[in-house]
Amino acid sequence: MSVSPTVVSLFSGAGGLDIGLERAGWHTVVATDVDPAAVASLRASQAANIPVAGNADRTHLSGTKILEADICDLRGADLRPAGAKASWRPSLLAGGPPCQPWSSAGLQLGFKDSRGLLIGQMLRLADELKPRYVLMENVRGLLTAAGPRGQHGEAIRMIHAEWENLGYAVSWALLNAADYGAGQRRVRLVMIATADQHLPAFPPPTHGEEAGLHLRRWVSLADVLAAVAKPDPADVVLPTGKRAEEILALKPGTGIRTGGTVEHQRPGGHWGYRQDSFLADLSLPSRTIRAASTPDWIRTDGVVRRLTWRECAALQGFPQEWCFEGTRDAKFRLIGNAVQTDMARAVGHVLLAGLSLGVAATRPVSPPWPAYFDRRIRGAAADHRANVASRKRHQRTEKAS
């Protein structure tokens, strides 16, 4: 008996994950978020009847029940379609719990941040709904994040164990959106889990930094910009103030350096580029699109300006017709926090193939972690041990200033 590819979408945001999954052939039956701007964007986009790429007979979020609610207040019954029996199971429970507790761009408070506990709410709803598959996306910082005992990698081990305690086999990978046709280098941690279906392998890359036998060359930032409508002058931000001269003098692919903190293995100083002062290289995919309203600068048509919110949406793979409600800052936040749609579509394809195989003959088992997981965790732990004292001194100095 075939099973309908239905999705219950949690932490839906502006809908990036849902767009990618629907392009792969899934149907979002319920989408929910606590953010009013996100929910308004989903409802406006639903009303716009935007065709699903590759399937013009369908429109995004057609018939989807869209809920504005705190996930802590939701129960399984709230997430069932109208008229569904209590025994109804979604084919897929999908979501990207808030990434700020684990992101290198945030304070990295992990489980000390109340948002870091929302993964537990996803576990609770999975236990109630019994989905055939679970798909979870998060920042790569979750991979090396410390847990309650301060051990690097402890957080992901705890999360893995909780899913297994519910009876799910769990598979993890780090995926780069550029490897699936996005014009953006965006690496994210992705989890697939199932209790009774075939556990699919993660999708192989379709693109690479260099073209190969089975790979096309990465899509560049210039390619994406060429396909986007000319920006509204009201959205164009030009450099001003004391930094304008420095920004205008930058070479593509470089930025204004931050102050260098001397560390154990970096006697010359640990420095990076200011997040708001980087000039993108148009020949490459963009850097990761952030939730801030200060995206990278670009030099195009002889003018240096920031990427607009609509261009950032295109790099995230949103249809040009997609609606983003709220202030300018809210639009950047919704876009930067979204799941990149090309990557979501690639994962959606392998999940759909797994669903088509039906219930597995034997109970699925979690595969070993990729070897690079352990290398990254060991590296993060070694870096912390070598530099924890100097970083604490630097934090105290920053607070004092």
In DSSP terms (H or I, runs of 4 or more residues), the helix count works out at 11
Class computed from helices, strands and strand pairing: alpha/beta
Large-scale geometry: globular
Query: For the largest beta sheet, what order do the strands appear in spatially?
Result: 5-2-1-6-7-9-8
Oligomeric category: single chain
CATH domain class of the largest domain: Alpha Beta
Q: Which architecture of the largest domain would the CATH scheme give at its second level?
A: 3-Layer(aba) Sandwich
CATH homology-level superfamily of the largest domain: Vaccinia Virus protein VP39
Our count of domains comes out at: 2
Question: Which regions contain 5 or more consecutive residues with pLDDT less than 50?
Answer: 101-116
3D structure, described in words:
The longest helix is centred in the last third of the chain and has 30 residues, at 371-400. The chain is α/β, with parallel strands linked by helices. The chain has 2 domains: 6-213 and 337-398, Vaccinia Virus protein VP39 (Rossmann fold); 219-328, DNA Methylase, Chain A, domain 2, CATH 3.90.120. It contains 11 helices and 17 strands. It is globular and about 65 Å long. The protein has helices at residues 16-24, 36-47, 118-129, 141-144, 154-165, 221-226, 244-248, 309-315, 328-337, 341-356, 371-400, and strands at 6-10, 27-33, 51-52, 55-59, 65-68, 92-95, 133-139, 169-176, 187-194, 207-208, 216-217, 254-257, 261-263, 266-270, 273-279, 297-300, 303-306.
